[in-house]
Amino acid sequence: MKQTVTLIPGDGIGPDVTEAAVRIIDAAGAAVEWDRQIAGITALEAALPPLPDETLESIRRNRVALKGPLTTPVGTGFRSINVALRKEFDLYANVRPARTLVPGGRYEDIDLVLIRENTEGLYVGVEHFIGMGDDPKAAAESVMIVTRYGAERIVRYAFEYAVQNGRKKVTLAHKANILKFTQGLFLDVGRKVAEEYAGRVEFEDRIIDATAMHLVLNPHQFDVLVMENMFGDILSDLMAGLVGGLGMAPGANIGRHAAIFEPVHGSAPDIAGQGIANPTATVLAGCMMLDHIGQGDVATRIRRALEKTIREGRVVTRDLGGTATTDEFADAVIAAL
Ligand code: NAD
To answer: What global pTM score does this model have?
Structure first.
């Protein structure tokens, strides 16, 4: 039986990288039927809202989606569709693995997973300007919200992930030294959850800024990392940099009723329309999706073909030092399958 999956190509390089991923996933023999939907700037250009009802309905129906990046206007304009999707489906866990595929990088054999809280923190969007005198934007205020419920379920998710994937340690990164209430609550809850896993999964907590430095100095000391929303957003890009850049980093947004898989990177306006983006992150997101729907054997075949193509280094995209286009790279991976 084929599983129907919502496919949102996205903006900028999105259509190129998702099309490459679809070709590879289909060629690998996955039992998947694609239900194509639009969102973001692409939807606006079709005179629809940035998050059309039909797209939401499709995700609600299929409960699984693969999406390309969606452009969010900076400073003004509509709010992030990515954040809206995470809120709509309560996709509270953002799982971002960073694993070495490219040899000869700064480090070899990196295998880290960052679990980011995806619905709370500063990204709840509770913010406003404060007017003073004749300046309506004299100050601005954003509210960071951390709930016991939200903190508990994300830390528990991290520990369960560790247990199910044979991981040894969970590091909780925080800023409880300064933000004693919000970050203090997150840490407090984390320590309590950790006690339940004592003897099975090692636990440590670290201050976020020092964690960033230690990740760069010696990433091998970490295993699974868990943190609130914005810290996770920033550190997952840092971790992508440790394994060859944003073109290599996939992510999964997991909730109880739906899951959306996507590359960590954005719509890359600087290279959009040139057909040169690296589709690896989206293909790896597709592999996480296949694992999720019980087609892990197909995912393993795709990962092997990807790894072989990248390690050989003959047909790779520009960000990996090659000259191949997105399509040529996808063809090479299909040939390696
Ligand atoms: P970006 O990730 O789009 O690009 C950062 C840099 O990485 C650029 O130089 C780009 O060329 C490069 N890059 C990214 N993906 C690549 C790939 N697959 N292959 C080769 N190079 C790649 O970040 P940005 O420029 O800050 O953001 C652009 C837009 O994307 C913004 O509107 C932002 O809001 C949005 N965005 C969306 C998502 C999402 O949909 N989940 C995530 C991040 C950013």
So the answer is: 0.93
